[in-house]
Design brief:
Largest sheet: 6 strands, parallel
Number of helices: 22
Number of strands: 18
Radius of gyration: 24 Å
Distance between the termini: 64 Å
Structural class: alpha/beta
Helix content: 25-40%
Strand content: 15-25%
Mean pLDDT: 92
Shape: globular
């Protein structure tokens, strides 16, 4: 068997069913093996960065490993842009990159062979494992190690560079040696002891708060988290990657916190005297650029699988607990059933509920031109159960983070930490293939869509049920806000928005235009009704401001940067 065919057989046995790729000479044997494989869908992207983002989008939705295949040299270099998104958001993605023949590789040269480049040394800082497969008989060991690293502990991307001669080499699969994963590091304490520590902290608090992040989903502990929040009623704040873990209608769920969160959540975070972080990194986006989102008197308890996260947290952590969240939350629920003593905070819970109820509602923003908060509110109301929202950066990101509620099993995929402009359209393709039958709704700005607009062709060619809503607010509205907040004058002119009717026609996608707020509900029904792709241009208020939970005396850009005086 050729190495290329072995690789394809290996990933199929590991339940990979879709590969995102852009073919090239450097990966020609891998491309051929994938094209011939039964039960493996090959999705041809228009750009290598998009292929990697498609794998990232699929993995973000399912938690399974995403796979992208790219060619050597420029193709591999392009793929790095998508790879970094997977790295910062801790997403398991395998990139299989072609490479020139082994005899031409010279790692000290700037380039070698034809389109050869030492990309592995470039991607090592943003992968958990990256290697050139220079010996065909080592392919199983490298694949074993790559899957182990990608999925074990805190997930992340991995990269295998496979030279052309190695791709074509003949091997005996039965004779291949594998990689023996090291025994897992034992916990210093078991789940019963750690659960008791957390519950004792809760019993000693008057105003406790949970912060929940994607570590909960990575532990497959969503059900246990929902049960814990329901049992205790502890006010719960979500990070962006934990945003869709719990329905907003739940009394205890406060919504997204931080610089881009809901305004009422800031008060909850500042007034809490105990913060219990469950699978959240406590990043600057959550705690603020001055790390002042929590009260200085509040105790911070952090539970995470990755011990490095404790030192990277942007606040002082009083209690560090390294633990798998599924085991911990299961044990906490068990102990609560036997003893609820000291686990009632009626005044605090009522106070937080009142803050939430009094918070501004997007439903009241039915103004002309269309307010984007109101639009997202009405879109979610008609999206249906289990819809997948794929959200781009800029104003689309901020508005959805302060509006979406996920009350009916909906999910979100977004570039949460990297804020990768233009990532939504390719991520939507990945999510669509990962969630067969699900309606995928993409929300992207009129400027951001241009960065990967070519993937509208992929949506069209594969007839995916992806509705792409373009918020046309006259350009980069969030950047305009930054310029207005931080500078004495508008700094740069913006390119004019595209003619999206013509764009839709060019990519053979049905086009719709939403411009009247009083007809919005009826106009949404047309694109949301039939399955298949659609491009919907939403004419939004170009002067609309974004909601900010920041203190009124600060001058803040949309990303939270505080500047005491204008530049």
């Amino acid at each position: 068997m050729r190495v290329a065919d072995y690789i394809v057989e290996y990933i199929r046995e590991r339940n990979v069913r879709t590969v995102f790729m852009l073919s090239g000479t450097g990966s020609i044997f891998l491309d051929e093996a994938i094209a011939k494989a039964d039960a493996l869908t090959c999705v041809c992207a228009r750009h290598e960065a998009a292929a990697t983002l498609m794998g990232t989008g699929a993995s973000k939705l399912t938690g399974d490993i995403g796979v992208a295949v790219v060619t050597s040299g420029p193709g591999a270099a392009n793929a790095m842009a998508g790879l970094i998104d997977a790295w910062v958001d801790a997403v398991p993605v395998l990139v299989l990159a072609g490479q020139v023949e082994s005899r031409h590789i010279d790692r000290s040269a700037r380039s070698f062979g034809i389109q050869g480049y030492n990309v592995v040394d470039c991607v090592r800082p943003v992968t958990k494992y990256a290697v050139v497969v220079d010996d065909p008989v080592q392919i199983r060991a490298h694949l074993d190690r790559a899957f182990h690293e990608a999925l074990t502990g805190r997930p992340g991307p991995v990269w295998l560079d496979v030279p052309l001669d190695v791709q074509a080499a003949e091997i005996d699969p039965a004779a291949l040696a594998g990689f023996e994963a090291p025994a897992p590091e034992p916990w210093s304490n078991g789940p019963a002891e750690i659960a008791a520590v957390v519950l004792d902290e809760l019993r000693g608090a008057s105003r406790p708060m949970f912060v929940v992040g994607q570590g909960v989903r990575q532990a497959r502990a969503q059900g246990e988290l929902a049960a814990l929040v329901e049992h205790l009623g502890v006010p719960t704040v979500c990070t962006r990657l934990g945003y869709d873990l719990l329905p907003y209608r739940s009394e205890a769920v406060m919504g997204q916190g931080g610089i881009r969160g809901r305004p009422h959540v800031e008060r909850v975070m500042r007034e809490a005297d105990l913060v219990v972080s469950l699978g959240a990194s406590l990043s600057t986006g959550l705690v603020g650029e001055h790390q002042d989102a929590f009260s200085p008197q509040a105790r911070v308890v952090m539970v995470d699988l990755d011990a490095d996260q404790f030192d990277r947290a942007n606040v002082a952590v009083d209690v560090r607990l390294r633990m798998d969240l599924l085991g911990l939350l299961t044990e906490m629920n068990r102990q609560i059933k036997h003893d609820r003593t000291g686990l009632e905070w009626p005044q605090w819970r009522n106070h937080c509920r009142e803050l939430k109820e009094k918070s501004s509602s997007a439903a009241t923003l039915a103004t002309e031109p269309i307010n984007s908060y109101y639009f997202v509110n009405r879109l979610e109301a008609q999206a249906g159960r289990d819809a997948v929202f794929v959200v781009d950066t800029g104003s689309a990101y901020y508005v959805t983070g302060q509006t979406l509620e996920f009350n009916d099993g909906q999910r979100e995929v977004t570039s949460a930490a990297f804020l990768n402009m233009g990532a939504a359209v390719p991520m939507a393709v990945g999510a669509s293939f990962a969630a067969a039958g699900a309606r995928v709704i993409t929300i992207v700005g009129d400027g951001a869509i241009e960065l990967n607009i070519q993937e509208l062709a992929t949506i069209s060619d594969y007839e995916r049920d992806i509705k792409v809503f373009v918020l046309n607010n006259g350009g980069y509205s969030s950047i305009r806000e930054s310029q207005d907040a931080l500078c004495t004058a508008r700094v740069l002119d913006e390119p004019a928005p595209l003619d999206f009717r013509a764009v839709a026609a060019a990519f053979r996608i049905p086009y719709h235009r939403l411009s009247a707020v009083d007809a919005l509900d009826d106009d949404l029904a047309a694109p949301l009704g039939p399955p298949g792709p659609a491009l919907i241009e939403v004419i939004c208020d170009s002067r609309q401001k974004l909601m900010r939970p920041a203190a009124a005396h600060d001058i803040r850009a949309h990303d939270g940067v505080t500047i005491p005086t204008r530049c």
